[in-house]
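Re-running the complex after MR caught last week's input typo. The corrected sequence lines follow. Everything else is unchanged.
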Amino acid sequence: MARKAVEVNTGAMADISFLLLTFFLLTSSIDTDMGIIRKLPPPPDPTQEIQDVKKRNIFNVLINKYDGLLVQGRPMDISQLRDAAKEFLANPYNREDLPEKRTEVIEGLGSIDISKGVISLKNDRGTSYKMYIEVQNELTAAVSELRNELSKQRFGMAYSDLTNTVNQEAISAAIPVAISEAEPENVGGTK
Amino acid sequence: MARFAREGKRETPGINTGSMSDIIFMFLFFFMVITTMRESTLLVRLTVPQATEIQKLEKKSLVSFIYVGQPMDTKYGTESRIQLNNQYGQIADIQEFITRERESRDEADRNFLTTSLKVDEETRMGVISDIKQELRQIGAFKINYSTRLGIVKDR
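Corrected-run output:
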């Protein structure tokens, strides 16, 4: 006569896996790291000559240690910065006091005007990080809004929705992230 | 007449719980795959600022973190401190930290290393400028200012 197989009680297995599950839930973090991605310039070369950039091609943004904003020599509220930066980078009416453009042929877009404008961002050592990120955010928003406008005009969809890498690269080449940070200077005297 | 109902011996059959563990295990593996272990315990108080124009960091294994903020433990004062891995560091330690981070990665990946700055929003820019200068010196050009998604201000 065949022996009856012993049945193993598997009821506790669920409990054990529940324990493991809670352990992993507690020790792990789901947050994917997000943020504003930037590329730092290489350290300054002492032998390199200082390039002369025309005054009309520079958009000066200064933040002082009281988190005040000075744009092109005038105080400005942060809510206006995005539009000011957009107008500077796009220069839609080819004004004399806004940046020059150079014409280049880009694959996928054909011949297009690229702005020579550079946003120069300078902050004090006493500026708060919060304000700095807000300004960076507004400037990034200005660039991405311009990219979206061009992308919608040429390809009929937003820049982030572009699936074709050629188109994506074309747009990012036509509107580069031209934000330059000045070499830090010790002016404010605060730590 | 045929009788369908049997008299007596009416037992509800037990529910088979054997597959419950399989389901839980599936949950477990799901969480294990999508999450990452918290590598270092935070020694600094951290509330990263909010921003709208944010991008996700692509490869998590190629990111090294620098934390800046007020020390959790008040005996270290209220001055913003830098945390590298599991201990407080100085500005001068950053180059060595980056070198060690690079050595722990594959040679092919070293150029794609990103440094993520997790900085408290109350911090002054002086410390961050110093960190950025050090990163430039050592050649770690790709950085990320870690932020939360949020509306900065009503427009």
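None of the earlier attempt is carried over here. Chain A has a mean pLDDT of 83. Residues 55-181 of chain A form one domain.
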